[in-house]
Amino acid sequence: MSARSSDGPPAAERPGYEQARDELVEIVRRLEAGGVTLEESLELWERGEQLAKICQDWLDGARERLETAARPTDASAE
Fold first, then answer.
1. Fewer CB atoms inside 10 Å of the end CB: C or N, the chain?
2. pTM of the prediction?
3. Which DSSP string corresponds to 41-72?
């Protein structure tokens, strides 16, 4: 499965779901812990937004695949 998004880095450079999720978890941890500058906080937030979109793209793609697999085929209708 590939990430479907047309914005951001090409699919070959986009992290997989688990990698994006793990990085997002780390960003949230750092933001919640505090101790970072405003500029760094903004950079972390922006990266977090990118990662959240990547994760959502992966989940949407998985949902589409499951829905496609669950549809009855024409051959089975006979």
1. C
2. 0.74
3. HHHHHHHHHHHHHHHHHHHHHHHHHHHHHHSP
